[in-house]
Amino acid sequence: MPTRVESTDPDGVDFGWVMQTTFVLTVTVGAVVVTAVAVFWGVDLPTWGARASFAIRVGAVVWLFTATFVYLYARRRAEEGKGTGDGSEGTTQSEADGGHSET
User: Fold this and answer.
1) Residue 51 located in a structural domain
2) Cβ neighbours around 51 below 10 Å, total
3) Residue 10, by phi and psi: left (phi above 0), alpha (psi -120 to 50) or beta?
4) I need a surface site. Which of 7, 36, 74, 91 has the fewest CB within 10 A?
5) pLDDT digit string (tens) for 16-51?
6) pLDDT digits (tens, 9 = 90+) for 57-85
């Protein structure tokens, strides 16, 4: 069976995972945060331009915090994976024994 093209073997932090996770979390958390800030602070947003500008300003702060958190989480996970030293990080038992099971 050929190796899947979309699989990766990152050395350290998997930046593809960090970018994807940051995007998803920023959209889901950011929408709630922008709405909550606008409602609870009573921000006057009379035009679509004002609404877009407000969403961009608040969303940028949400993105910055989300990206930092996700990167630090991924870095911590990558450092934990290095500590075992047995070379089996992220592999299942069937992958570790070459796909052969003794049953």
Assistant:
1) yes
2) 14
3) beta
4) 7
5) 999 999 999 999 999 999 999 999 998 899 999 999
6) 999 999 999 999 999 999 999 888 775 54
